[in-house]
Amino acid sequence: MTQEEMIQASTDPEFLKYLEVREKDVLESKNISGLYEVLDMLLILDLDESRINKVYETILTVAFDGIEARLKSGVKLKLDDNDSEDKHYIRAFYEHSIEKWSRDDHKGAKELFFVLSQIIDDEKLQDAINIKLLACNDNVDMENFYETKILHKESVEEEKYGYFLVDFTFDTKSYLTENSQKLDKIYQELKSLIKV
Fold it and tell me: Which of 11, 94, 155, 189 is the least buried, fewest Cβ under 10 Å from its Cβ?
C-alpha cells in the first residue's frame, strides 16, 4: 500500500466500515490468518491503539493455545505451508519473545525462545532463535544486538523469513558450534517448559 493509498483508506468511510466488520468477524472466529490481516491493516492505517491491542491479545491467545496443542501432539510447526496456521503461530510466539527482550525481560524472552526452538521444523529459523536464546541468556541488550549482530539487508532472500531476523554479521553455524556447550546447558535448564 502506497502512502497515498493509506491516506485514502484511512479516510474512506466504506473501507473503514469494512475493516470494522472484518475485525469483528475475526475476533469472533479467532482465525489467526484473518487476525493478522486485520492487525497489519490497523497498524498501517495507524488506527486506535485499543483496537490494535485487542487484536494482538487475541492473536497471542490463539497462538499459545495452538502451540500448546502442538506440544501435546508432538507435531512440529513448519514455515513452508502458506495456507497453514503454523507460520502465524510461529510469528506470534516470535514477536512476543522479541517484545519481552525489548523490555529487558531476558528470562521471559529466553524461555519463549527456548520453547519456540523446540517446536519448529526449520533449521535456519531454529539456528537464528538459538542465537537469540544465547543472547538473552547473557542478558545482552536487544537494541545493541540488533545494531551490531544483525545483518541488515534491503530485502529478505526467502519470503517465509520476512517476519524474522535470520541473517547475522557472523557465521551462524560456527557461532553455534562454539557455543554448543552453553546452549546444551540452557536446554537442560529449561527442558521442563516443554513437558505437557
Answer: 155
Query: How many whole angstroms separate alpha carbon 63 and alpha carbon 88?
Result: 7
Amino acid at 51: R
Q: Using alpha carbons only, give the angle 61, 66, 67 rounded to the nearest 5 degrees.
A: 100
Using alpha carbons, select from 97, 108, 117 the residue that is nearest to residue 163: 97
- Tens-digit pLDDT profile for residues 147-165: 999 988 766 677 888 889 9
How far is 47 from 12, CA to CA, in rounded Å? 13
| CB proximity list for 80: less than 8 A, separation 6 or greater | 122, 160
Of 37, 50, 148, nearest to 87 by C-alpha is 37
In Å, how far from its chain's centre is CA 39?
Answer: 14
Only one residue has cell 529459523, namely 125
Rounded distance, CA 111 to CA 175, Å? Answer: 20
| 4-13, 104-113, 139-148: least confident range | 4-13
